[in-house]
Amino acid sequence: MKNSTMTDSLIGNNPYEIGSEQKEQLFSEALFEEIKFHYDNNEQYRNFCKNKDFNPHDFNGNLEQIPPIAVSVFKDLGKDLKSVPDNEVKLSLQSSATSGIPSTVVLDKITAKRQAKVMVKVVKDFIGAERKPFIIVDVTPNPENIRFLGARYAAIGGYLNFASEVNYALDIEAGDNVSFNIEKTKEFISSMDKNVPMVVFGFTYMLYAQVVKPLLDKGVKFELPKGSKIIHIGGWKKLENEKISKPQFNAAMSQLFSVEEEHVIDIYGFTEQMGLNYPDCECGWKHTPIYSEIIVRNPATREQVQDGEEGVLEFLSPIPHSYPGNVVLTDDMGIVNPEPCPYGRNGTRFKILGRLKKAEIRGCGDILGSKLKFSNDDLTLDISEKSNLELHFWKGEKLDQTLAAEAQLTELITKLNAKKQWLKDQPIDALIGLIGEASKVWLKAEGDLESMKEKGLAFLANWAKPIHLNRISTIGLRNNRQYIDGFLPLNESRKQFLKANQKGLVCHWLAGNVQVLGMFALLQAILTKNVNLLKISSKDGGVFANLLRTFEGVSYTTPGGYKIDGEDLLQTIAVVYFSSKDRDLGELMSKSANVRIAWGGREAVETVANYPAMYDTEDIIFGPKISFSAISKEVLGTERKAKKLARKVAVDSSVFDQTGCASPHNLYIERGGEVSPKEFCQFLAEGMVKASVQIPKGETSVEQISAIHSIRGLYDFKGEVWASDDTTWTVVYSEDSNLAAPVYSRVIMVHPVDHINETLQYIDDNMQTIGLASSGEKALKFAEEAVEKGVMRCPEMGRMLNFESPWDGIFLMERMVRWSTFGGPLI
Amino acid sequence: MWEPQGMYSKFLLKQPTILFGDNAIMGLKTYATSRVSVIYGSGLDEDYKDKISNALSAFEISFVKKTWIGEPTLKTLHATIKKIEEFNPDLIIAVGGGSVIDGAKMVRTYYEFPFFNINETSFSMLNWKTTFVAIPTTIGSGAEISSASVMYNDSHRTKEFVVSHQFIPEIIVLDASLIVNAPKNMLLASMVDALSHAIEGYMSNIDNMLVDSYAEKAIQIISQFHQVISEGTSPENINKLQLASLFAGLVQNHCIVGATHALAHQMSAYGLSHSAAIAIFLPAVIRKNNNDQASKERFGQLAKHSGFNNGEDLLTFVEDFIAGVDLTKERKIVKENEQHILSDNDFFIQALDDKGGQGNPVPMDKGFLLEIFKEACS
């Protein structure tokens, strides 16, 4: 790079002096000079640009048309993302990672110099050019404290450039406990010139934890000279759970140090564009200096929003030279104010509104780190909170609503148990017939059920056809469903007879991700003549009650004339909701259960497992699991076969929007077939388009959208991405064969492998399903090894989500009955 | 692109357990069962009921008299199904003629699969949990080994064949004591029916080498022991004829029979019993088919393998046997209706369409059947 670049001349200017029109050209030229440099010198970046159809050398669009790099790229690739030779790299900088994985950027001399220069220029504009006495609310940055300070060490170092004298206000004690040294600080203040303003500097969360919280209550107050300022950096992430707002924080700080509120300055910045600081202006907004620009984008579409609309923030700056961090899309939400600043600062005014929420894990993929031990550690410490008992579906006798929730639940359980005899008296074939009648209604999917159509209702309807229920219950009840109706010869013996009996009350704790699954368990509980109490998830949205309502008015008469009414069956089922934090209700339900069935994520199933239960209660835990798919080269013999298979993978990846335990998130494809793994991605993309029509996608949350963009952004760098224009579906190709964490929402990661057996290493007992497309001995060997390692099923592709028996290694019906014998024993 | 699949043939022999001999019924004792329902027709006496009860190791036994007359319909089956549902048996015995056994097959189907729908359901799901025992009280029809169950659809006024090998009983008890006292003429006519099953099954355009030997054995037994009927019936020999009839039925069940059955089925409208109608048409059909060289050779082969010198001898035996059956009444009916039938186009169309007659070795048309009919009348 030449000695005097456009960036160098840009940063020679003061940060807020130049008006927007003049800035536009200066800034744009400098920015493109840098972007072209990265394009020419950084293969990964060039690859990314090509993926995005962007070439800076012949680009003449607007700034918002430059493809931004997601911060996730720096978290994943940071260290390797270099545009300069290794010998020019002086330092790699890591974010403090107050949450999640840290971002890393590599710095060369040029970048470091630029960073220092723009930082000084910006900070000076707020605290003045002269050095001032600093109270740094942290420990002394001596070598023994470096470990404790971590990333704060460098930041403190940066600010020392503005300090004449320094007081480090925190003392470190054994065990990394720190405390605010009030006396020392008071002494420091009184030793200074009363007419020279001072600066209090610290990290926001340190100030909160060590100053605001402990000192405010004690009534401590420091008298700082007039004009003193408090600057704090590091952001609010760690304070999100504390109940304090920025104005409250500012008020508390201003009170403690006798500083005017507008002189409490929060400085925003982020690792990927280190050196660029955005302090609060007296006008209450932040400004982009001439060294950077901001674009606000719609979190879902990534289109630029109108000024004044909230969105996710993208920062552009020519400062980064050693790595391509010039156009960075952050996870931070903000807003731009187009009005001019009354205090005369130029530059786009903006505010940070918080962080884009991380996608909440809605699926089964939050697998257990270790096997559940069902110990009572930490969970018993949970505070129980009282909740109401919401009756979502109950057709039996009315409950006394004036009673307390616990008394109501007790009454409900008593009423359910009173219905056991009725169920006992029903022939299993009549129950099958009745459910068969309901399945006809489900198949139509009309009215309230319409929205369920693509959420497994069609499959449920087919599953609940009599012919299939007959099969399920025959398999489930030791090859003769009629064991539940009476004593029959055991194993063709004339001396010994076997009978299956209801267990009694089956309590279900349902999950929010795949509601239909709960229905499969309920129907099998009914066929085994158990009464049922179901606690739905808070996300149920009335779905379960709607499914049950189908039985209203439905009846079934056997060819011999036995009639069974849906209304009677409904009296054996209750659907309730109460907060999972209400331990008392949870325990009561658990203690009454003869069978406990828990569906859901780790926390949910652990909660249930930790409730007390009768010693002989049968526990069926359908905990979190993950799944993947594997294709061997033999089945990719022709393009036609590959396309057919791709459609099936697309179906598996689209059903339930990938929230099922059996939903694949990763797909391994063997190299060496007629169709290469990469070519397969193209077919898969076509399949995903078709699947999106066939299986319309449910609502996608903003958080989920952000996660999708984040992964797409990352693989635009690391691999290749095929995706819908919106966020409906994403196919990611990655040479890396590690099992990638689920993103959900129809994001499928494709990895090439030389042999499907390479994927065996990813299998443990958190793995539920492997969709397998292979053949012959190879397929059998793979399946044998896979199940030994913990996989439950290796179904055909396109049917991974089809609930079958056994499920999760369990023949459900067999677990919901008590077996008894008559006569014998034979030996 | 669709690629033609390789064609193959498949031999299937659903072989039930056959209990026979003096105390055949006692063989049921070895089967594990909890509750047994016995569906029976009109002629079952109390002694035999006791005999059945003694032969079973069940806790409970219920005797249910069939509620249908002639061919069962869903409506007439209903009352029997109700009783079976209420009793909840795991073993069902049908004691009676073809109508009882056929009806009981449907009762069992609706009992085990209440959702069974003749028109919609694939029969592959008929995976029985009950055991079905057939104790035929007649001989010749082969109902006890038949995969077909005939049901009359009262709403559509059509006869429906429900065909699945799953309908074949698991156990067949051939008890001669139920047959010995049957009228001689009826027994003879029944044996003609059995002969026709063996001959038409063997001659069928569905070639099944596996069952050929059953046809040959059936004819051989019948030719060897038929005189026992006229000479005075011994249970031992009746039992042999029951077996021959079973073998012949088995042949019919695996190969589709031909013109004899196609025509005979139409005669029930004129009040002729099935076996009498068969006796009237069988020789004419054999002769007609033998005009075809290949058919003639095949018939000759059957004759040799079943102990005759040639086809002519076998045909003569068939004719002599039939001559020993009193068909006076039936022949009279046919004669009376001859002209009417010959001018009744529908009679022959229905015969050509008859599902039970599609196996004739020579392709049939109206003229073909017309000539047979005329010859049978002469």
Automatic annotation (TrEMBL), chain A:
Keyword NADP attributed: yes
Domain Acyl-protein synthetase LuxE: 4-372
Signal peptide from the UniProt entry: none
Top-rank taxon: Bacteria
InterPro entries per UniProt: ANL_N_sf (IPR042099), CoA_reduct_LuxC (IPR008670), LuxE (IPR007534)
Keywords, in A-Z order: NADP
Name of the protein this chain belongs to: Acyl-CoA reductase
Organism, as annotated: Maribacter cobaltidurans
Source species taxonomy: Bacteria, Pseudomonadati, Bacteroidota, Flavobacteriia, Flavobacteriales
Automatic annotation (TrEMBL), chain B:
Domain spans labelled Alcohol dehydrogenase iron-type/glycerol dehydrogenase GldA: 17-175
Cofactor(s) required for function per UniProt: Fe cation
Organism: Maribacter cobaltidurans
Residue intervals of the Fe-containing alcohol dehydrogenase-like C-terminal domain: 189-376
UniProt cross-references to Pfam families, sorted A to Z: ADH_Fe_C (PF25137), Fe-ADH (PF00465)
Highest taxon in the source lineage: Bacteria
The protein's name: Iron-containing alcohol dehydrogenase
InterPro entries: ADH_Fe/GldA (IPR001670), ADH_Fe_C (IPR056798), ADH_Fe_CS (IPR018211), Alcohol_dehydrogenase_Fe (IPR039697)
Family (UniProt): Belongs to the iron-containing alcohol dehydrogenase family.
Keywords per UniProt: NAD, Oxidoreductase
